[in-house]
Amino acid sequence: MKRISFAEFGGPEVLQLVEAEEPHAGPGRIRIAVRAAGVNPVDWRIREGQVLGAHPVELPAGVGLDAAGVVDEVGEGVEGVEVGDRVFGEGTDTYAEFAVLSAWARMPEGLAFEEAAGYPSVVETALRIIREVGVRPGQTLLVSGASGGVGSAVLQIARARGITVIGTAGAANQDYLRGLGALATTYDEGWVERVRHLGRVDAALDLAGSGVLRELVELTGDPRKVISIADLGAPQLGVRFSGVAGSVPDALAEAVDLISRGRLHIPVEKSYPLTEAAAAHTDSRAGHTRGRRVLIV
């Protein structure tokens, strides 16, 4: 079996395509023949050796949390899924020809593997941070770095719940944010004043880690009304860093419902063959993503 692995922490050049033993589905798990794997910022953060307590690493290590594919092994005690089912979900070492999933759901009708692979961690994160920041219907949520996968999900889920959203992103993604129902502005000089002109901010999310936490606290008036998923220094400012997943099965069930009802769509900006995992990490780390990046296996 081919998989992407790294034997030392470092830049994207440490990623190698290697031959590895096939994993197998233990109790409560399933194995899939991977068709596509989601590329998430947490993937390259782990590869760089950033301290992420929720994702301890033992080298050499595989890469990837999200995948979509076809079930080919069902572990002991698993019910409601059969060999041959098309599923998407979260597991370990998903940049590979086979991967074991710990949480999964059947793919909605009409959804391609390439699209499905980009949803699991993204939707779980979006649902979690909307809940943790405590924003309610009728209030306004500011989303910094709103055009990526998590931002795209947050904007759509928040709008569906009656929450006004203000999104910041690069100039090229302004129309994209507006298409998702957000009030949009760029994050260059003067962005704080432009946000103020758009309205009162009740809560804010930092999705890009671009050094804007002080401004988000200023806009909300309270560090407890700000959540970051990208700035490990957030607690120094009294801001909560959210990095531990909640219930992935519940998030997948809500994703299936939203996608099936046409209330959630996250585009795939670019797909890469497995052999170009390093390029996918380079592009993901550069930011300015519109939607998701995935690997095709």
Automatic annotation (TrEMBL):
Give the matching InterPro entries.
ADH-like_N, ER, GroES-like_sf, NAD(P)-bd_dom_sf, Quin_OxRdtase/zeta-crystal_CS, Zinc-ADH_QOR/CCCR
**4Fe-4S found in the keyword field:** no
- Limits of the Enoyl reductase (ER) domain: 10-295
Please state where this protein is localized. Cytoplasm
Q: Tell me the keywords, alphabetical order.
A: Cytoplasm, NADP, RNA-binding
> Per its UniProt record, what SUPFAM superfamilies does this chain match?
GroES-like, NAD(P)-binding Rossmann-fold domains
Note the subunit structure: Homotetramer.
Q: What is this protein called?
A: NADP-dependent oxidoreductase
